[in-house]
C-alpha cells in the first residue's frame, strides 16, 4: 500500500499515542537545582565574556535560586561593575545535569521568561557524553532553545560528525536554514521557529510557553507552544502519570532517522542550561550589528550591568520521561543519591530582584550516573519515519 504524506503523519501520531512515556526525572520547586552541577569555569566552549560561577558564588551573588513563586531563576550578574580594562568577564550560570539521558527520552520545559537583550546568548541543550580521546561533536549536540541578542524567534539544531543530515521536505512547522548537521560553520542543521513569541520580549510578554523534545531511535523532534496553546496532555500532567504525544501536533523541527542514524551519532546526553554573553555567535561583529548598537563588550558587558535586567530564565519545571518503564523505576529508586546539591530560597516573584536567597550544591561536572540502555522501538516506527523523511 502506498501511503500519502497525510496518511503517514496520521499513522505516526497514532503510533506515538500508543507509546506512552513514563516519568523519569523532574526538576522543579525547591529541589530544582539538586540534579545539576555548576560549571565553575570561564566559558571555554563558545568563548563568551562570562565566568560561570560555582555553587558558592551562585549563592553569594544570587544568580541561581528558587523564587517566592516556586520557580527556578538562573541569571546573569546585573549589579557588578565590569571595567573596560582588566578582567573582561561578567558572572553567569551554566548547569549540567548529573543524569545522563539515553535514547528514548522525552523532555518538556515550561518557561515564563528567557534571557534576552544585546550580547545575551541563552540556551537549553543536550550535550553528548564523550568517551576518552573524543572531541566535540563526536557524541553529538541537540539544541532545543537557543537565540541571541534581540532575536524574536528561537532556533533549533543538531550537531554531529559527517553523515547526519536533515532530509529535504520533512514534516515540520519551522523553516530549515541548514540541512547538513556537520555544517562547516558549526551552525549544525538549523531550523528557525515560525510560531510567534518563541523568544525575547514577545515570549515574556505572552506569558512564556513550553518546549518539547523527543530523543528517539526514530529521530529527534522538537516543539514549541505559546502559553495559551500548551497541550492538555502537558498542562494536566500529574507527577506519576504517563505522557503521550497525541495532542502535540506537528513538530517545529524534525530530524527523522531517514537522514541521521540517531543511535550512531547521539549516545547518552547531558541536559545543559546556560547563559553566555557575546562569544562566537552573539558577539560576531556583523551578527551583533544586525540588532544592536556599538560593540558587544563595550556597550553591554562593561559598566554596571543594569542592561541585563532581562537576562534571566524563570522556569517552573523541566520534566523528563522515558519510553522504558524499567529505566523509570531505576531512576526513581536511585533518586536520593542524585540529590547531592540543593538550591532553595525565596525572592521577588518577578525573578529579577531577589530578596532572600539560599543556594547550596556541589561544583564540577564529573558526577557519574549509571546508564541503562533503552530498547529500540519497533520496526514500524522506522518505516513510518523513513517515509516522512523521504517526503513520500
TrEMBL record:
GO BP of this protein: glucan catabolic process
- Which parts of this chain are annotated as the region Disordered? 340-362
Q: Which UniProt keywords apply?
A: Membrane, Signal, Transmembrane, Transmembrane helix
Write down the InterPro entries for this protein, in alphabetical order: Beta-glucanase-like, ConA-like_dom_sf, Glycosyl_Hydrlase_16
- Could you cite one Gene Ontology molecular function of this protein? hydrolase activity, hydrolyzing O-glycosyl compounds
- This chain's protein is named Concanavalin A-like lectin/glucanase domain-containing protein
Q: Which domain of life is it from?
A: Eukaryota
Residues in GH16 domain copies? 15-290
Q: Where is the composition biased (Low complexity)?
A: 340-352
Q: Where is the signal peptide?
A: 1-20
Transmembrane portions of the chain: 372-391
- Keyword Transport set for record: no
Q: Which PROSITE patterns match?
A: GH16_2
